[in-house]
Amino acid sequence: MSLSKALTKPLAQLSHDEWESLCDGCGLCCLHKLEFDEERGLIYTTCVSCQLLDSESGRCRDYAGRFKTVPNCTQLSLDNLAEIDWLPDSCAYRCRFEERDVPEWHPLLTGQPIPVTIGVKAMAIVNEQEVEHEEDLEDYIVEL
Fold first, then answer.
1. Which pLDDT value is given to residue 3?
2. Residue 42 to residue 85: CA distance in whole angstroms
3. Above 90 in pLDDT, residue 65?
4. What whole-number distance in Å separates Cα of residue 130 and Cα of residue 123?
5. Is residue 135 predicted with pLDDT exceeding 80?
6. DSSP output for 43-91
7. How far apart are alpha carbons 86 and 84 in whole angstroms?
8. pTM value?
9. Other C-beta atoms within 10 Å of 142: how many?
10. Is the dihedral of CA 136, 62, 64, 23 positive or negative?
11. Residue among 84, 112, 96, 83 nearest 25 (CA)
């Protein structure tokens, strides 16, 4: 099998579709994060998902229209990858940015969906609509 162009072309030269194909569907981008101690940059991930996350597929239910429903949704781009330090080590965007190989299970290498043991499929996810108060998010911090 030949490597996908998304894995071999420089990031700045990827087409929109090639860029989007880097997403493995882990869904971890769609989990709420809490920042504690801004000086040290401590960011904690919760098991509380965006209301649009389909935790079975790890994909957004309304990707094209997500900013209408979730205005603060993170749009990964070449311009902001260096600033987003909470992406998992296995994230293809992060791997490519750091000039590392993507994990051997990545869908672009295997042609198969992400394994169920990786990402939100392996977690007990709580939709943000089920959390009454934002300050309760601390109760949902998880170790990744």
1. 62
2. 10
3. yes
4. 16
5. yes
6. EEEEEEEPTTEETTTTEETTTTTHHHH-TT-----TTTTTT-TTS-TT-
7. 6
8. 0.84
9. 13
10. positive
11. 112
Tokens representing residue 102 in the block: 């993507």
Structure tokens at 60: 């957004």
Following DSSP, what letter does each residue of 98-110 receive, concatenated? TT-PPPTT-HHHH
Nearest to 61 by CA among 46, 86, 69, 119: 69
For the chain, what are the domain ranges? Answer: 5-131
pLDDT in tens, 76-125: 999 999 988 889 889 999 999 999 999 999 998 998 988 888 888 888 88
Looking up tokens 């894995």 gives 7
Q: How far apart are CA 101 and CA 114, in angstroms?
A: 16
How many Å separate Cα 41 from the centre of its chain? 19
Q: Which of 6, 48, 7 is nearest to 28 (CA)?
A: 48
- Here the tokens at position 56 are 């079975």
